[in-house]
Specification:
Helix content: 40-55%
Structural class: alpha+beta
Number of strands: 8
Strand content: 15-25%
CATH class of one domain: Mainly Beta
Number of helices: 10
CATH topology of one domain: Jelly Rolls
CATH architecture of one domain: Sandwich
Shape: globular
Order of helices and strands: EEEEEEEEHHHHHHHHHH
Length: 288
Amino acid sequence: MARTIIENIVIAQYKDQTFFEFCKYTTIRFFEIVYIEKGEGSIKINGNTVNYTSNSVFVFVPDDIYILNPDAETTTTAIKFLKSFFRGDAPQNENLPVNDWFRKIEGILNSESHQLREMQFEIESDKVHLISLIKMVAAENDKKKSYDVFIIQNSLSVILHLIARNIQFLNADITTKVVESSKIQQIINFIHANIYNSELLTTKSLAEEFHMADNYMSEYFKKHTDVSLKKYIINYKLKLVETRLKYTDLQFSEIAMELGFTDSSHLNKTFQSYKGMTIGNFKASITQ
């Protein structure tokens, strides 16, 4: 049974099913969390097949198409954020921390590790907490008219945070020369986590954070990534710009301010320098 509690967020629950109808929300879904409480079988995702078992958690991003093929009775809960949720189309969502939620999700959209689809967790307790929160949201969904929106909003916020934190843990966003280099991955993760705070991403601040000399910080980063620290930070910011242009209705000036550019002109010049087109042309190309 699918039900919308918060405008443009759909919660669907299926108990002891051996057949799942194709998800009718696929074409308008932005982001989806699927928790398989019990059962076993396989999921066909974009033509590829992976197995699932009880207590599996999957995440799906825009344009993913999936079909569940159970080998045994399967119970699932799906939380679907529709594309319109992040476009400001619903006045009922004005008081929700929509932009904060988008920030959590965007890290997943820009991560190579989301291609795994099934969530892996750095520590088991994160998975336990995530599952408990999904069950809480599902329980409120079952209450029909007596549900508590406050509980659902806060639960969803923590759910997204837990997913984002563990996607960050798995993130292999760039190819490092030293595959098992925990220090360089820690630096990359720190940059991603603090991309909205430019003061923390100066060479001096990063050197202090990771106990390096200022002049060695840039050298170390370039050695292990083949790209300069400054260029990596700008490239990552521009990935986030692209994500906002694709999935939100934010003005160019709002995007510029949020990501630490002086103004929309500064953002446009930087974007054109790195991407070979203006932000206006990029926006037009994805809306055609």
